[in-house]
Amino acid sequence: MRGILFGLLRRLVGLIATLVLTYLALCVLLLAAYRVTLPPITTVQVQRAIEASLANAPYSRQYRPVAPDAVSRHLPRAVIAAEDGRFYLHNGIDWEALREVREEVVHGGRMRGGSTITQQLVKNLFLTTHRSFIRKGLEVPLAYAAELLLSKDRLVHLYVNVVEWGPGVFGAEAAAQHHFGIPAADLSRTQSAGLAACLPAPRTRTPKGMESYTNIIEQRMAQHGW
User: Which CATH number is associated with domain 34-223?
Assistant: First the structure.
């Protein structure tokens, strides 16, 4: 009996490993495709639709990915300043930032996120917002794959095109229209910083309520020479 159970367990583990590797391979193929095209949908968008359905809540998706020249140059800069100041220095995982987070926690500081823009991009594209060791385990290889297949500018452009900016609001164009009534190409420096200020909690924050953090992001942008 023990031998039979061990054999079944080994088969189950093998099946799970095969499924995970197959999914990772599919994600890598999609990343390669996103070098020249934009995602028609993301797993986070699917997650939000399922959550709304289960809660019997109304749901409307606003999402229209646009080309780089249709997004204000200020927006990706503001997002980098707010979310990942070392974006152009790391290879997908910012181990230095993670060490800083660990040191802060050890010395009594509050726990904060250490995810890079690349990690957040693959999470939005292929995973969910639910925190788990499984998600983090998938994030790491996908982040490295994304950095290998895509340029830094393409990575941040994809990110601003798919990230959530309000209930059912995804991407720069939908966010600009929803919050300011203008196309993403016309976003000012301050408006871009205001959108970036919402990203830690995009379903509850709005640019109008984030003036203080918006000013901080603009200061960070200036430090980067933007």
Answer: 1.10.3810.10
